[in-house]
Amino acid sequence: MRRWPVDQEFAMADNIAELSVQGRVDDPVRLQALRATGLLDADSATTLDRLTRLATRLVNAPVALVSLVDADRQVFVSAVGLDEPWASRGQTPLSHSFCQYVVTDQAPLVITDARADGRLCGNLAIPDLNVIAYAGFPLRSPDGQVLGSFCAIDGQPRQWSETEVEILQDLAANAESEIALHTAHGELMLSSARMRSVLDTAQDAFVSMDRNGQVTTWNEAAERLFGWSAAEAVGRPATALMIPERFHDAHLAGLELTRRTGTSRLSGRRVELTATDRTGQEFPVEMTMQMCLERDTPVFHAFLHDITERRRLADRREHLLQQEQLQVRQLRELDRMKDDLVAVVSHELRNPIGVICGYTEMMAADPALPDKLRKNLAVIDRTSGRLTNLVDDLLDLAQLDGGRNTLHPEPVAPGPLIHEAVQNHRGAADARQLTLTAEIGPLPVISGEARRLQQVLDNLLSNAVKYTLPGGTVTVTAGHDDTGIVVTVTDNGIGVPAEQYPLLFDRFFRASTATGSNIKGTGLGLAVSKAIVEAHGGTITAGPGTDGGTRFTLTLPAAMATAGAL
Q: Under CATH, what is the fold of the domain 410-557?
């Protein structure tokens, strides 16, 4: 504490200049520091009582106080010699306070006779508390805020000697230190209470152990997890509370290694362990442990939570994954067997269908064949043709899906190929009273197999003609961009429901509009077309046309080197 020369202190007592604006009583920072002491509403502090009693003996004053100045009152945290009722009340309003001026001045206040002091003569402490002579010294917080005053009071005028002032100043320094210790202790207790509250409300169990493995902290979550109350757990070894017996030796060996080396290989790590509860039931836990040194002695703090459900879900997930992998292998095997079966059956069907077609053609060539039989032969011929197309489609899909069909790409001029496909379907379009138009611009050479590409175009055009009502239109466009050619086939026919577009290229799928109109089909043509296009590195998509109906868009990459537009 700063020591004030006695002559300066007396000079201050006689000074009646206006109150300094510094250190205002109601300054919020000062009031916060004041409340942090925890003394405003506390019982008398024993150590401070010793100092005030010592003050009355050493300076022969009837009254000594430790007064803390609040915004509207002064509180006596220690008082010796004070008359009633003030001694019992332990406080006065500021109208009865000299100590407030020690706070506002932030300096000692030494008064010989308050009745003669211009600033104090009207203070009610004079008539009510018999305060005539006063010597008070600032009590500061560690951050320099003036909290109140350590003072001695006499009911008679007196000239305070330099020795008395020095004694009171030294006692004030001791009181200041005691208040700082009390504040630090209060903050420590508050911090401890907060930590205890956090630990008690934590969802995870928290357990602390000393260097010998004895439990020192056991929160409520630990009580719930292991079945032991804190009163039962604290002071007992962790091996008796939560560690299965078969792991006791390893646990004790780990403690001994930590004591010897001062380090723990588990500190700071998250590990999964087996724990046991009060009933002896074992269960998996996840533990995060920290080892600290307190007075050079290792202590252990650990958070633990039950991971039984997590383990169960992980095991279930692993089981489902294994099942899924098995099902995938089985499905792939079934798919392979199906493709093999389709290929074999389709190949075996070719011969009898060929025989049927041959005999049908031979019989139809007989000019003497009756008309009725000729009509029947026409039905057989059409049916055989559909069977042949079906077998061809099945073989194509089996070969393309199985990767057994190797394309034989060569430079192809797509323009003539598209023109030829349009011309091949013009007769069918005319028969159905449809308008078939083509808008084909200059196209770059592409790399592909002309026969397969012709198959795709035939599938798209035959579908467009088949599913467009009389009087409708079918439009073919072809152009190119930087990556290749784009061909569209658009009709204004019966269309496809929006939710069914993603299914159009699935094998055997037919749109509800087609089946509802009793239009024949196998549902394989688009699946074959998609497989052929993708084998060429292209794409094929379907969507609604601008005037109803359906639009198919086909893209094929240009050849690496082109021979000009055709």
A: Heat Shock Protein 90 (3.30.565)
